[in-house]
Amino acid sequence: MAGTMLIGYDVEWWGEEDVTRRFLRQVRRMHDELGVPATLFIVGRTLERWVEDFREIASDPLFDLQQHTYSHKLLKTVYIEDGRSVRVVRGAGLDEIRCEVGRTSELLREHLGMECIGLTGPWCYYRGLRDRPDVLEVLWEEGIRFTRTDGRNERDWHPVSMDLQPYWYEPLGFPDMLEIPTHGWHDNTLRQEVLGWDDLDGYFEAVRPYIERAAERDEVFSLCQHDWSSVRDDPEMSATERLITHALERGVRIVTCREYYLERLRSRERRPEHVRMGV
């Protein structure tokens, strides 16, 4: 048994401070020292602000750069029941989604020379986009081939069980589009609303069981962190480094989301035709 860990950072800060710049420098240092790859899912507005910094990290072969829409517009409505209140955040319309995705893909192409095939849906959703074939069609037409949108439980909250493993959107008519769910908690939510920002040991202990399960059952563990929250009260990203080191010690392999998608696609294409057709 080995297991697979997918590390995805949602890079979305565009405020007045240089949070993203500091994050990019720190995350590159850490991953280069560990020799471990990761995927950055970038908001278009954030890319526009820090183009030169993104060019630097785009030149590093350990990093795969994908997108997180242009201005963090939700792809569908979330209805959050967290045990304290109900919060509703509405998703964007199809034309707006097309604009958000197409514009960011063009920015990645123009500034970084990269063709975008992957997307994280802002906030993530229960059941991903299995109930929104109309949104999937827009994403497919805009060149998206893997998504990271399934990242909330039945209450549109957290945590998300690792029973939920990556799956194809084949039943909805998109056989080559892969969903890569996120597991556990989004780091910002867990640290801000449950643990407190300064409880780095608590964060490590909350995430560690997912790494253990991946190693013991040869499953995929998809970690969701963010630029601003990864460095808040942890400027050296020591908690993240500790998690990655633990995964390596447990023999868990770490690949980018793009590489994982391509592996799954190649495996799919090698299947006998009668299996691919479901005969």
Brief characterization of the structure:
This protein has about 280 residues and is α/β, with parallel strands linked by helices.
Describe this structure in words.
The chain has 279 residues and is of the alpha/beta class. The protein has one domain: TIM Barrel, CATH 3.20.20.370. Helices cover 43% and strands 22% of the residues. It has helices at 19-34, 44-49, 51-58, 94-112, 133-141, 187-195, 200-217, 227-231, 238-249, 257-269, 273-276; strands spanning 4-11, 38-42, 63-67, 78-81, 86-89, 118-126, 146-152, 167-169, 174-179, 220-226, 253-255. The strands form three sheets. Strands 1, 2, 3, 10 and 11 form a five-stranded parallel beta sheet that branches. It has a four-stranded mixed beta sheet with strand order 6-7-9-8. Strand 4 and strand 5 (86-89) form a beta hairpin.
Features:
5-stranded parallel sheet; 279 residues; TIM Barrel; alpha/beta; single chain; 11 strands; 4-stranded mixed sheet
The CATH superfamily bears the name: Glycoside hydrolase/deacetylase
Silhouette? globular
Average pLDDT works out at 96
The CATH class name reads Alpha Beta
CATH names the topology as TIM Barrel
Count of helix runs: 11
Structure summary, number of beta strands? 11
**Structurally, how many domains make up the residues?**
1
**Termini separation:** 31 Å
How large a portion of the residues is in β-strands, by DSSP E?
Answer: 15-25%
Radius of gyration: 18 Å
Instruction: Spell the H/E element sequence.
Output: EHEHHEEEHEHEEEHHEHHEHH
- Quickly give the structural class: alpha/beta
Binned, the helix content reads: 40-55%
